[in-house]
Specification:
The complex is a heterodimer of chains A (180) and B (474). Chain A is α+β, with helices and mostly antiparallel strands and 180 residues long. Helices cover 49% and strands 13% of the residues of chain A. A 4-stranded antiparallel β-sheet of chain A has the order 2-3-1-4. Chain A is elongated, with a radius of gyration of 25 Å. Chain B has 474 residues and is an all-alpha fold. Chain B contains 16 helices and no strands. Classes of the chains: A alpha+beta (180), B mainly alpha (474).
């Protein structure tokens, strides 16, 4: 990966979630798109404010679940009918009611693993390094009690001085420049 | 409603509803974070922790010895023989896995029902689930006699060209329990990622920063991440709910599918599931009450939690009582089967009938005290009750396994069951292992989910702009 230099973005710190949501709504209205909010717990309003409405985790989960049920039911059928047919108390080889139980468990197993790992993958995690961790106030508060809005430098509307004064209009605790 | 004699200015009572609060007033995002993360990040581990850890480790060593001896000598060191071929191993397996179920219930079902009070107890209830499944999963494995061949249970292409037999409930168990263990661990870990991020950011030592840094996977609290995270949590909760019901159902099939009087009934799945939740909540209380006392967590695990758990125990206990009543009705009268009738008579009044009456006392009679609000709100009494209920639930499995088997159709083949010292050592050893793992958990991982507690604080409410600009102005 080529080494990146320069500014990642401008990071505004707020004390309350309400201030953050107001700033994010206004930034979105002002035309900023490449930005993100960072909060110590889920703030749905902030996600709405920056125009993030839907995600694909449910779809990944559904696909995983269907894969699980298909895989196990086919495996059971193949084993019991073709590969290793056993006569158990005269029951048919294709004893589908009995096959439901493991197939059901694998539906849940695959769906659950897909939801969990799909969520991580869509989030781009694990990603141990991120430029935001270079901002000292970010590490002090983002996972504890502070609320952050970061407008990224690659936003077409981004102008260091202008964006800074725009963010300062929302009475943040601070606005700092984040380096790569 | 508040009781009449409660002091009016009690800070733990909500002035509007008069109910006990879920979290003490006056907490901020910062104070919650500090209070919970300090338990883990403190350089001064309390001496009591070391004492308990060593004691639990010592008891767990007994398990190690018992299992080593078992591997050397075989299952003959246990009391299992004909006619009672299923003994302590199965009893303990069902008991432990049942205990695990309350953790999933609290984290998944109560999440779907939007029961906010669950937030402060769900993390350690989930940890309890995992450690209980660890203890449970061991028993069938060591019971098979040749545990090093345990992988034969899984369908894999082998040079022997042999495949498992999918019509057997014992094989269903393999899939149910392995799925349950996997999903419980994933749910627990995913739930912990944001809190691990907090620990990473707050720890002072390099080793802790490195370890929590890796475990947190680089979590930075982006709201885009949070939205996906919340979706995944809800989906996992939605999946864990049918899973937890299915796991104990499948375990009850181990019995119910067999044509043995005392086992072959359709009441088993629902009554096993209710019993599982019953014993699991009892175990949550057994763990929560000493922990909240020791770590001074009374403002996060409040009387409201204890009271609510008492109510859940009362409700599930009554379902279990209904299950017992149905069994008696079915075998004494409805089945019109001599063998069923004799089994129930023998279960109640035979030479091992005492175990049935222990069960009735511990699971039905004494828990009726939970109807009394003052009893539920008294941590010491409800702690005692939780121990009684877990004893009763252990005896329930003992009754089901042993008293259905020891006197079968032919009097000449009747026998009895008397557990050996190795049976006891293995069982007590798993209690040690469970406690040992739990001590490790409360020392190194955040036992109360910080992010979920922050969400419950009044400050988390988004206020309209008009109020905000007023506030920003001064």
């Amino acid at each position: 990966m080529p080494e990146r230099e320069g500014t990642y973005g401008l990071l505004a710190e707020f004390d309350t979630p309400s201030q953050l949501v107001r700033a994010a709504e206004n930034a979105y209205a002002a035309g900023y798109r490449r930005m993100d909010c960072y909060t110590p717990y889920p703030v749905e309003e902030a996600a709405e404010a920056i125009g993030f409405h839907k995600n694909e985790v449910s779809l990944v989960c559904l696909i995983g679940g269907m894969l699980g049920v298909t895989a196990m039911f086919s495996l059971e059928t193949w084993i019991s009918v073709w590969s290793y047919p056993l006569n158990i108390a005269g029951r048919p080889y294709f004893s589908w009611p009995a096959f439901v139980v493991p197939a059901y468990e694998w539906t849940i197993l695959f769906a659950g693993l897909s939801a969990a790992f799909g969520m991580l993958a869509l989030n781009g995690l694990p990603q141990v390094y991120h430029p935001l961790f270079n901002a000292p106030n970010f590490r002090n508060g983002a996972t504890s009690d502070k609320f952050f809005l970061c407008v990224e430098a690659n936003d077409p509307k981004f102008e260091p001085a202008e964006t800074r004064s725009f963010l300062e209009g929302f009475a943040p605790v601070s606005v700092v420049e984040v380096e790569y | 409603m508040a009781t009449k004699d409660a002091p009016v200015n009690d800070p733990m009572l909500d002035p509007v509803t008069g109910e006990q609060r879920v979290i003490a007033p006056g907490h901020t995002f910062k104070s919650v974070t500090e209070k919970i993360s300090r338990i883990v990040l403190t350089p001064h581990t309390p001496l009591g922790w070391f004492a308990g850890f060593t004691l639990a480790g010592g008891v767990a060593t007994m398990l190690l010895v018992a299992v080593v001896w078992l591997f050397l000598r075989g299952t003959g060191i246990w009391a299992i023989t004909i006619p009672v071929a299923w003994g302590f191993a199965i009893i303990n397996f069902v008991w432990w896995i049942g205990i695990g179920h309350a953790g999933t219930l609290i984290s998944a079902i109560l999440l779907l029902f939007k029961q906010g009070w669950r937030n402060s107890i769900n993390r350690f209830a989930e940890a309890m689930t995992i450690f209980a499944v660890v203890c449970a999963g061991m028993f069938p494995l060591i019971h098979v006699g040749r545990p090093w061949l345990g992988y034969w249970l899984f369908p894999y292409p082998s040079s022997m060209n042999v495949w498992p037999q999918f019509r057997s409930p014992l094989l269903w168990d393999v899939f149910a329990v392995s799925t349950y263990a996997t999903i419980s661990v994933v749910f627990w870990y995913i739930g912990m990622i944001p809190d691990l991020g907090t620990l990473r950011d707050r720890s002072k030592s390099k080793i802790a920063q490195f370890m929590y840094g890796w475990l947190a996977l680089g979590w930075r609290g982006s709201v885009r991440h949070w939205v996906r995270y919340e979706t995944a949590s809800l989906l996992l909760a939605g999946l864990a709910t049918p899973l937890v019901l299915s796991v104990h159902t499948v375990i009850s099939f181990d019995f119910a599918v067999a044509l043995v009087p005392g086992w072959h009934t359709t009441i088993f799945p629902p009554y096993f599931v209710a019993g599982a939740i019953y014993s699991g909540f009892a175990m949550v209380i057994t763990l929560a009450i000493p922990i909240r006392k020791f770590y001074h967590l009374e403002d996060m695990i409040t009387i409201r939690h204890i009271d609510n758990m008492g109510k859940v125990m009362l409700a599930t206990g009554l379902i279990v009582a209904y299950g017992y009543a149905t069994e008696v009705f079915m075998s004494y009268w409805y089945s019109a089967s001599h063998w069923e009738y004799f089994m129930m008579w023998n279960r109640m009044f035979g030479p091992m009938g005492w175990s049935y009456w222990v069960l009735v006392t511990c699971n039905i009679a004494l828990p009726q005290l939970l109807w009394i609000r003052k009893f539920r709100a008294n941590p010491a009494l409800i702690f005692l009750m939780s121990l009684i209920i877990n004893t009763g639930m252990w005896f329930e499995r003992f009754v089901i396994v042993v008293t259905s088997l020891y006197r079968d159709y032919l009097p000449s083949s009747w026998g009895t069951y008397r557990a050996t010292r190795w049976d006891y050592a293995t069982f007590v050893g798993t209690l040690g292992l469970f406690t040992f793992l739990f001590f490790l958990f409360i020392r190194f991982l955040p036992m109360i989910p910080m992010s979920e507690i922050r969400m419950m604080l009044p400050q988390a409410k988004i206020r309209p702009e008009a109020e905000l600009s007023h506030e920003a102005g001064d």
